[in-house]
Amino acid sequence: MTKTYKEHREFGFMHPVSGYYQASIIVYVDDETGEEILDEYTPLEGAVPFPVRPQGDHWRINDAKTAWIKMSAEEIRAVMPSLTRLKFRKEFKDAGMTTVVINAAIASVADPSEQEDYQIAWEDAQSFKRLDPLVLLIAAHAGKTPEQIDDIWNAALAIA
After folding, report:
1. pLDDT, block means (10 residues), the chain with 160 residues
2. In sequence order, which ranges of the chain are alpha helices (DSSP H)?
3. CB–CB of 118/108 below 8 Å?
């Protein structure tokens, strides 16, 4: 039997301990019959076939571990990298959320203890997460949509 290389094909597997992984397997075509022949591959013991991860970012495996699902905007925000204090302040200032606006947002909080917590976070935090309560407070006070804050956040992340 002679065979001709056709392609590399990705296969997905789910392992009970290691989790999801992909393997690239060579596919040949039998020159006489035209049938596909997969190069030999032995998955990890206990692994079962699983759909290949879709192209693009922001996919996760469902709770039943049976399929890929697109992450919601809120799930994506929850895993966005933190911003350093410097990047946060610069990008928010450039987007109109100056120190004056931020201090006004904090001052708008009615509960004195909660207001002090925001003030402490503003003065002492060295980094900020996308869904930090302070970030949400500033955005709401400035009238920014979650999508606008996402754009500001991504711009800050792009700064070297």
Report:
1. 91 92 93 91 91 91 91 95 96 96 98 97 97 98 97 92
2. 73-79, 85-94, 99-107, 112-124, 133-142, 146-158
3. no
